[in-house]
């Protein structure tokens, strides 16, 4: 028995669900990145380390789910660590 939706309508509905899911994951990554940068700018080393661990976990999760590409995740983690080192290496 055929369904009521055409295959194109079904694919569109599926892609919309995936788009919203991916958008939520990317938003979470941006939020953690923002919190990390704020902690670094406040010169709170302990908080910055904690936020970096959270950010790293979220980026790795996004990578494993295929939301972000491998090189993009590596680039973001590298830039955040460079920011951290530039701020706290002088101590």
From TrEMBL:
One of its GO terms (cellular component) is small ribosomal subunit. One of its GO terms (molecular function) is structural constituent of ribosome. InterPro entries: Ribosomal_bS20 (IPR002583), Ribosomal_bS20_sf (IPR036510). Keywords: Ribonucleoprotein, Ribosomal protein, RNA-binding, rRNA-binding. The keyword Iron-sulfur does not apply. One of its GO terms (biological process) is translation. Belongs to the bacterial ribosomal protein bS20 family. Binds directly to 16S ribosomal RNA. This is Small ribosomal subunit protein bS20. It comes from Treponema bryantii. The lineage of its organism: Bacteria, Pseudomonadati, Spirochaetota, Spirochaetia, Spirochaetales. The gene is rpsT.
């Amino acid at each position: 028995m055929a369904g009521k939706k055409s295959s194109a309508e079904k694919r569109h509905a599926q892609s919309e669900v995936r788009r919203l899911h991916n958008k939520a994951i990317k938003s979470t990554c941006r939020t953690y990145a923002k919190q990390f940068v704020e902690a670094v700018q406040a010169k709170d080393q302990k908080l910055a380390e904690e936020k970096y661990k959270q950010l790293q976990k979220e980026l790795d999760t996004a990578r494993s789910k295929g939301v972000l590409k491998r090189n993009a995740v590596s680039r973001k983690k590298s830039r955040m660590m460079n920011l951290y080192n530039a701020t706290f290496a002088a101590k």
